[in-house]
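Tokens for chain A. Residues wanted.
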């Protein structure tokens, strides 16, 4: 079965799907992301028991982008508790593009619909404890180090600067939220935290291990130590199902059926209870913002091993 999955099988699947990369386009609204090579493709599976298996450009680092929203949500829940967090951000899918602003005007108070769209994720970043951006980002990095047992993971400052200097829409969202008292403190500081959390650099094995922690009910997969309370890990995975794949989350649930979150760098992190974490990297994106190759690979994997949770 799936535990017997071998590196050469992953390699042959990657070989089969690589032709689809030309159907997508690398994100360029963050200038540094445009430098990514659409031919860099990688996949990793981190089972709850056993070693990580991987194929492709598995050493290649890419930034978390929106995948970080799952991690920051877990930390904000730990810091503030569920009532506080969901007093400021909703639980419903939006069906809108991730950076859409117009729904904020349709609700009073201006509560973003969920933590996976930018407006909601910015509110979540604003809730992470710390006296300044440096401390907040440091806590988020420590949290990632704990999940991966890998202290080498850092912020890609080049991507962070590139996004910070071009984040006019996210600035607009933040100023709107500040005006309506949904976020506290300094807007530019929150944007600094958000752009840095989005710019954390990982490879597929590191990302698959984070996915495995969520799959393992919030526990470290080797020591079994509880890093994220089980209930919060479950909340995060539920958001991955309902809004993890932008406004293609419905079709992804039908075709693949695994909780997953994608980012505009072309990364996807998937988490399957009792199985483990899966990560895919392929920077060419479809029109919704999901990795073209990532979607194909996850579909193959899910169908081949009947992994859908539904
Ligand atoms: N940092 C990106 C932004 O806010 C994340 C978007 C994404 O990956 O969906 O635009």
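Reply:
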């Amino acid at each position: 079965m799936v535990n017997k999955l071998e590196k050469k099988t992953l390699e042959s699947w990657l070989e089969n799907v690589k032709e689809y990369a030309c159907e997508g386009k690398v994100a360029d609204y963050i200038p540094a992301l445009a430098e990514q090579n659409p031919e860099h493709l990688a996949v990793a599976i981190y089972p709850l028991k056993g070693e990580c298996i991987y194929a492709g450009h598995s050493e290649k680092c890419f930034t978390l982008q929106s995948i970080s929203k799952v991690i920051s949500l877990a930390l904000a829940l730990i810091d503030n508790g569920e009532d506080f967090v969901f007093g400021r951000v909703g639980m419903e899918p939006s069906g809108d593009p991730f950076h859409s602003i117009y729904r904020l005007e349709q609700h009073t108070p201006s509560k973003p619909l969920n933590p996976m769209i930018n407006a909601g994720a910015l509110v979540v970043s604003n809730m992470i404890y710390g006296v300044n951006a440096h401390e907040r980002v440091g806590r988020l990095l420590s949290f990632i180090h704990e999940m991966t047992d890998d202290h080498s993971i850092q912020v890609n400052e080049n991507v962070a600067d590139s996004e910070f200097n071009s984040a006019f829409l996210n600035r607009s969202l933040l100023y709107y939220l500040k005006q309506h008292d949904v976020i506290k403190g300094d807007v530019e500081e929150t944007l600094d935290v958000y752009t840095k959390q989005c710019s954390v650099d990982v490879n597929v094995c590191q990302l698959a291990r984070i996915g495995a922690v969520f799959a393992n009910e919030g526990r470290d997969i080797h020591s079994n130590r509880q890093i994220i309370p089980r209930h919060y890990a479950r909340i995060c995975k539920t958001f991955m199902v309902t809004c993890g794949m932008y406004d293609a989350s419905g079709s992804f649930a039908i075709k693949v059926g695994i909780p997953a979150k994608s980012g505009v760098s072309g990364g996807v992190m998937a988490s399957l209870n009792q199985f483990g974490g899966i990560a895919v990297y392929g920077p060419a994106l479809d029109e919704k913002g999901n990795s073209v190759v990532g979607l194909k690979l996850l579909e193959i994997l899910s169908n081949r091993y009947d992994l859908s949770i539904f």
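The first helix runs from residue 7 to 17. Residues 65-66, 98-99, 118, 163, 170, 198, 263-264, 289 surround glutamic acid (CB under 6 Å).
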